[in-house]
Amino acid sequence: MTTHQETNSADTPAGLSPAALDALMPMHLRISSTGHIQSVGPTMAKVRSEDELVGLRLLEVFELRRPLHVHSFADLLKARTSEVRMRFRVGYPLTFKGVFVPISDTKSDGALLNLSLGANVVDAVEHFDLTSADFASSDPTVDMLYLIEAKSVALEESKRLNKRLEQARSAAEEQAYTDTLTGLQNRRGMDAVLQQLELSGMPFGLMHLDLDYFKQVNDTYGHAAGDFVLQRVAEVLNDETRSDDLVARVGGDEFVLVFKGCVDLAILEGIAMRMISRLERPIDFEGQECRISASIGTTLSSFYEAPAADQMLSDADRALYASKDQGRACHTVFSPDGQNAH
């Protein structure tokens, strides 16, 4: 069996060496006078291995679609030089265009068929992992591949840029909604969550927590101690809430907690009392004991026919100050009938 690697220059058209023929026509097929494939170019061998092609009849491998009046290899030889359209009979459905040229020399008769990929070049390049090296340098396909590669590079760069912009946007948005000292949500973050809850109709409980004796810590030990205490408070509040709940620092020593889907006063009372108990424990800062406590006011969305964030915040604030009036370190629930109840 003869392959393009074994053909000598005397057996190739115009005495071209196999290497020259491969460079000029990387998708060529050399065909004997009987219509059998004798050798194939390197790109054709990449698309369909030589073992699948060499030795077979041309029209066993390819379906001839143009010229329309040709039905056999003998007809092709009679037609002399012909523009052809062909496709594989089996396997990946590649369609080719090319030129068929009968050859007659002192060695043998037969033909040379030079094919190109035509309109399906993009699919073929992707499917068979072809590169510009698989085409003759004069083939317009090379220019197309450069354009495809340039477009691919530009697309990838655009994706990377969009990803960086999205990350930057997310970081900026997170920063805009985050209290830098404690890492909790800030008032803007709280407003966004409450607006979503208003629109969704999901029930929720809302607590307003204010630290007791925090001013004394700042005045006695300095702002560094106050900042440390606020960070410790944030840890306690996060510990006592779920990941879906909101914990926001809305003032110097004021916090709002939103419990999504929870309007059970017994559960919220337990959470409030645990937070108060934990915040009454001394907080050590550089050998100094910082002592605070917390007063809490709570209201529930179920108290209202149409819950509104501003009204609920105001009512939770009223309940909070009722806790202050009772001696601090207390939890008070807002009563819709106007009577605050512990």
Automatic annotation (TrEMBL):
PROSITE patterns: GGDEF (PS50887). Keywords: Coiled coil. Residues 202-336 form the GGDEF domain. Residues 148-175 form a coiled coil. SUPFAM superfamilies: Nucleotide cyclase. This is Diguanylate cyclase (GGDEF)-like protein.
